[in-house]
Automatic annotation (TrEMBL):
Cytochrome oxidase subunit II copper A binding domain: residues covered: 125-241
Pfam families (alphabetical): COX2 (PF00116), COX2_TM (PF02790), Cytochrom_C (PF00034)
Domain (Cytochrome c) ranges: 250-337
The protein, known as: Cytochrome c oxidase subunit 2
PROSITE patterns on file: COX2 (PS00078), COX2_CUA (PS50857), COX2_TM (PS50999), CYTC (PS51007), PROKAR_LIPOPROTEIN (PS51257)
Name of the gene encoding the protein in the UniProt record: coxB
EC number assigned by the record: 7.1.1.9
UniProt lineage: Bacteria, Bacillati, Bacillota, Bacilli, Bacillales
Job of this protein: Subunits I and II form the functional core of the enzyme complex. Electrons originating in cytochrome c are transferred via heme a and Cu(A) to the binuclear center formed by heme a3 and Cu(B).
InterPro entries the UniProt entry points to: CcO_II, CcO_II-like_C, Copper_CuA, Cupredoxin, CuRO_CcO_Caa3_II, Cyt_c-like_dom, Cyt_c-like_dom_sf, Cyt_c_oxidase_su2
Top-level EC class: translocase
The species this protein was found in: Fictibacillus norfolkensis
Superkingdom of origin organism: Bacteria
Keywords: Copper, Electron transport, Heme, Iron, Membrane, Metal-binding, Respiratory chain, Translocase, Transmembrane, Transmembrane helix, Transport
Keyword Isomerase annotated: no
């Protein structure tokens, strides 16, 4: 008896902890707090499916409890209960009811699926187009109309419909912004592009978190990005500042020299540099190093010194720089800010 009571206490403690953890979460990374039209409609589908499941669960448990109590074996009664089978009404009910429930769930799901896919491309004159490319383990964002390319941070104007073209530079990834839209795969190859759309909602000066939702390698869990929604005026200013940026935005000449010698072949700053690595234009204005670390000098130096320690399996090579050179190039990168 004492052992049973001890187990009961642990069960009660576990239930309390589970209830407490239900209140935890990040409102900028939650499909349960939709911030746009697409996210809201997907949330409504979730509510329909959960409601149906709860209804079925309640009915099953009620019937189970009823049968358990009504037909339980009574003390001193050793007779065999009457055997009942072949009730056509019951068979009809448990066949028709699930079909009706599936129809209730299927009709809005199919309608939303066609709605979300049929309107995914192309963008009209007053809408925004973005090309998203997944890399191991970072995101590239191209704005065709604005003629600029960013990485890790997607800046968008509020109250705007965004059409997204999705592809991958290596393996299958999945583009997911829980607060704004469900996930869509990014596939390698030009013929395997996917398309989606979402709207940015009415809130401004807010940052939503994005994730890769497809297992893509050792650092899949670290493949984060940010979506920053700003006012339309601030968006225009951001585009103008990004286009005006160049590799001379920093006063650190020593760091710039180290960067140009060792990093510019892969990374672009302004209109200069390669395109195999993330663009570092406006790096000083970002709030994360490698998409996951706090944006400070120590974390930047840690990333430059040994990228594999921070993100195992990523494609950034370990550059043989002295501590003084790493310090200088870190100062240079943190000084790269938009005008």
């Amino acid at each position: 008896m004492k052992k049973w009571l001890q187990k009961g206490r642990f069960l009660s403690l576990f239930a309390m902890l589970a209830l407490l953890l239900m209140g935890c979460g990040d409102p900028t990374l939650s499909a349960l707090i939709p911030q746009g039209e697409v996210a809201d409609k997907q949330f409504q589908l979730m509510l329909i499916s959960i409601s149906i499941m709860i209804l079925v669960l309640v009915v099953v448990f009620v019937l189970y409890a009823f049968v358990l109590l009504k037909f339980r074996k009574k003390k001193g009664d050793n007779s065999t209960p009457k055997q009942v089978e072949g009730n056509h009404m019951l068979e009809l009910l448990w066949t028709v009811i699930p079909i009706l429930l599936l129809i209730i769930l299927a009709v809005p799901t199919v309608m939303r699926t066609f709605e979300f896919s049929a309107d995914a491309k192309p963008a009209s004159k007053n809408e925004l187009s973005i090309k998203v490319t997944g890399h191991q383990y970072w995101w590239e964002f191209e704005y065709p109309k604005e003629e600029l390319i960013t990485s890790q941070e997607l800046v968008l104007p509020a109250d705007t419909k965004v059409h997204v073209e999705l592809s991958s530079a290596d393996v299958i990834h999945s583009f997911w912004i829980p607060s704004l839209a469900g996930k869509t795969d990014t596939n390698p190859g030009d013929k395997n592009k996917n398309y989606m759309w979402f709207d940015t909602g009415s809130k401004t000066d807010v940052v939503y978190k994005g994730k890769c939702a497809e297992l893509c390698g050792a650092s899949h869990a670290l493949m984060d990005f940010k979506v920053r929604v700003v006012s339309k005026e601030d968006y225009k200013n951001w585009v103008a500042g990004y286009k005006a940026a160049d590799d001379k935005s920093s006063a650190n000449a020593d760091g710039q020299q180290v960067f140009e010698k060792n990093c510019l072949s892969c990374h672009a700053v302004g209109q200069n540099g390669g395109n195999t690595g993330p663009s570092l234009t406006g790096f000083g204005d970002k709030d994360r190093v490698a998409g996951i670390l706090e944006h400070d000098k120590e974390n930047l130096k840690k990333w430059i010194k040994d990228p594999q320690e921070v993100k195992p399996g990523n494609n950034m090579p370990k550059v043989n720089l002295s501590d003084e050179e790493i310090d200088a190039v870190s100062d240079y990168l943190l000084g790269l800010k938009l005008k």
